[in-house]
Each structure stands twice: as C-alpha cells, then as structure tokens.
Write a structure and sequence with these properties.
Length: about 600
Amino acid sequence: MMRFERDKLQEILVALDSVIDRMHEFENDHKAQLNRVHPKYSQSAMNLVHYLAMRSFNMNIFQDKLEEIGLPFNLESHNNIQFGMLNLRAVIYSLMELELADEENECVNNKKVKEILKENHKAVFGEIRNERKTAIMVTQPREAADNEDVIKSLLKQGMDCARVNCAHDDEIIWKKIIDNIKANDVHCKIMMDLGGPKLRTGKMKPGPKVIHIKPKKNALGQVIEPAKIWLAPYGTLPTRDKEYDAIIPVNKKWLRKTKKGSFIIFKDWRGKKCKIKIYEKEGRGRWGSCRNSAFVTTETLLNVFIEKKSASEIHSVQELLPLEEVIFLFEGDSLRLDKEPIPGEPAAYDEEGNLLELPHISCTLPEIFDHVNSGEQVYFNDGKIEGVVKECHSDHLIVEITSASKKGGKLKADKGINFPNSDLGVSGLTKKDKEDLKFVSKHADSVNFSFVNNKQDVEALLDELKKLEANIGVILKIETKEAYRNLPGILLKAMENYPVGVMIARGDLAIEAGWKNFAIIQEEILQLCEAAHLPDIWATQVLENLAKKGTPTRAEITDAAMAQRADCIMLNKGPYIAKAVRMLDKVVSKMQRIQKKKVTILPKLEFSESF
C-alpha cells in the first residue's frame, strides 16, 4: 500500500514542474545580465535568478502540501535552488513509480556550493579568528590613529576586519589607523565607508560658554555619587578608558603644585558656593570630585588650597568653548527646516512666554526641498523625533512634531533626517565620495557604498573604480526602501565585480521602511544574500549600550545571538568597544554550536535526569 496518496503527490508534482519551468524562463529573460557577472559568480548569479523565480510563486501553499503528507523537504536553504528542486522531483517520481527522464541541465551539488560560499566569505572578510564562522567588524575610533594599543586590544579580543568611515576625520588620520592595523596584523581586512549623500541637520548657533557639573542623585535629590572632574591644561585629555563628568581647562603652572588632598573653593555663575577635592594625579592633569551641582564659566574665580591649612591662591578658568546649542521639541511643536545654512536656534519667547520665533535648523542637502510635499513624514535623530510636513515654501519647510520624548526630544547639529515617503532624487556618488575613492582604492580591501538605491548607482561606482584601475571589493549598504525594492538588480550589477558583500544598515533602513516592516525586510535581505552566495553584514547598534556604557542590555544579547545568522557582525565605536568585541566573540561562538545560519543544530542536551 502506498504511504503517500497519489493525488496529493500529483498536486505537488504539478506545482514543482511550474516552479522549474519558471526557473528556465527567468534564466532566458536575464541571460544578458548573467553573462556579464564575474566568472566567480556565474553559479551564484544563476542561483539568485532561480530563487527569484521560485519566490514569484506563493511557496507557502507548496510547503503546506509537503507537510500535509509528511514528506520531509527543506525549503529554508536557498543556496542551491535548482539542485533541491530537481532532487525533490526525483523523489516524487520514485514515490509515484514513474520513470524520470535524464535531466538536460547539469547543476552543481551542495558540496561545491559550500566551497563557493567559503571562498566568497574569505575574499571579503579574510581568515576568521577563534574558530568562529561569523566575522567581527569594528568601526575604528579616532584614537586608533595615535594609540597603537587600541588596535592591539581589538585584535586580541577578536576583531577580524576593520571599518574606517570617510564621513569623519581625513586622509592623514585614516592612513595612521590603517598603518597601525597592518603593523599588528597584515592580514586584517580594511573596509572604508564612503559618506554618501547623507541628509543631516546643519550647524547650530553657538550656545553659552559654560560647564555644567552634575553629580549623580537619587529620586529624592540626594547626591549618591560625586561628579568626576578632569582638571588639566587646555587640550589635555585623560587616558582613553577613564570616564569623566566634566573637563575644566586651567593653567598648568599652578595645577602642577596641587596633589592629592588639595581642594578648590569657588562660586559658580549663580553665586552658589562649591568645592572640588583633588584625589588623584595623572600626567599633567588632576582628578577631582564635586558633590555640588555647578555652572562654571570663564569668569569663575578658583580659590586653590594647595595644603589643607595653607592660604589660598586665586586663579581663573581658561577660555571655555561654547556649548552646542540644543533644540528641545515636544509633541505638537512646530519646527522650521531652512534651505539656506542659517545657524539653528531654539524657539524665542517674550517675557510673558509668547512665542516670537519658531525653533529652526537647516539641512545639509538643500536640493531635497524641490521634492518634499505637504503631508509627508519626516524623522530626526535616528527616528527619536517624528514629524509631518505641514507647509512647503521655497526657502523652508514647517514641520509639526507628532512624537518625541515626554522630556523633550533633543535636536542638535549633524543629526540624521529621514523622509521615508518622499522621493528625494538623491543617491549615488557625491563629489567628496569620488575624491575619497582615490584614497580608498589604494589603501582598502573593500569600499562600503553608502545610500545605493539602484543598479545605476552601482554602475557609477564600478565606472569610477575602472578609471582608478582599482581592484577592490564592494560592500553594498542597504539603508533605504528604494534599495530594498531594487535589490535583485543591484546585486546582479554588483556581481560584475569581485568580491561583493551586503551590509544591512539597520538604522536608516528601519526608519525608511517603517518599524512594523523592518523585521521582515531584514529577513528578506538575508535570504537574497544567501541565494546570491554573497556574504552579509548585520550592522547598527549591536551591543551599543555595552560599547558606550560598559553594560549590555538583555535585548542586546538576544540581538547579538540572532546576528550569528549573518556572515559578519559590525560593532560601532565606544569607550568599551574592546569589551564589546570580547562579549560578541563569546556569544557568537556559543550560538554556532546550536545554529548554522537559519538551520537549527541538535547537539546532545545536558539536562538533569530527574524531570
């Protein structure tokens, strides 16, 4: 008696034949693109086309039919579609006792595909440390240019490849960072980000020249930890790993005489009497503690007591830099977004509290004003502040704030702006990108292409690389809705180069796609990369709290564990970045024991026998 019902098997066979026929159609339709890819990607590009053909059907119905009759078949693996489909058809034919004609198409087996995946992974990320399968990429901090110990620490903790962002610093700093990396590990891969046409807030009007000392207090307003003050000559910073609450620049001549036990009495800007106790000497600077909340200005006079019973010496604070002005925005507020680079300012009020002038700030890409319409959404500062465009004028927009922190959303200079519903007509290489590319092509292993939106953008990048006679990898940063929609074409165009990788830039992508859509889009990108045999990078805010504050959140650990499904995980810089690299190395190494990409591995469980 047949275990599987013949009519059910016939339904599956009909569906299967339809999918295989569609795969052949897609091959013919995209033959020109397939012929242009790099020879190393010939099989990979073909598999991507087969995957797109398969996904042109609702495969859920097909999966349900297989599950209904209890026929085990893995549709989750996408790296060898044709091989899997033909094998399944052979199984169905055998169960139906039908004779299967010899297949005209030869396809590679899974062993060969694994070799291709491994080769592509190594071409982008190099050799991986600590027997991990997932690489760790680390964004290099500015200190890595002058302090080689920063690099040594990151490499020791598990960094496999380094990211240098061209949006910050300059060629001199980039070269120093790269030289320090190569001096410690010549095989460490270097990835350099092009800044791209990033839309950000413009400069703010300088605020007051003041330092705010804030000790930590409990809910009752009681001081539970004094503020840590760094006193030093102008420009002298404490060592990298030490945190501080405030830096006060002072004259080195009198500071040299102070020691542990010295103290400073002063009246702050409000006339409040305050005290700083010096408790540690470090190089040319001193560490002090202050239990008072204080506002220190350039005019503040310091009564310095070198010894406890000595007479005081009166000194002054050195010239202070102005604080960066901040705009606080609440739900229901209006904000003016200027086309011209007018320095931003908070709202202005009269003595009775009546609004005289709206808060205003400019943006770095004035050309977007020709593309934004009323009613379209706008997000500021990584989505922390949400708004909608209420009025469009030739020189400014009026934005109504629809969501912000109850304490007020902070808006400063150089914060991201997103118009997820607007077609801004902004993409591709900027003038600065083309200049930076000259350096990148000589010193990096791969260029990270920011804000790619379509295959024309990729073609422009490849043309520039040809002009420079550059032989480097390309990593596509997918961070817009348009890039996601055009991803198949983007990948096939990029595969004319070798090697290629894909970065899921989750920060901007989440805002552009919408929070409710982001999870599924992230998953679809991972699947497309698997089908194209292209290594992917899980980026943005991985272990961010740990890197910046020294302690991870529970959600961060879960996110890091899920990131193991990608081929590489990117960490951003922070005071505790070495600690974050070490934690990520441990989490990923443990996760790969029970999960390989999306496939669950089942090692022997170690449970108590009494259950």
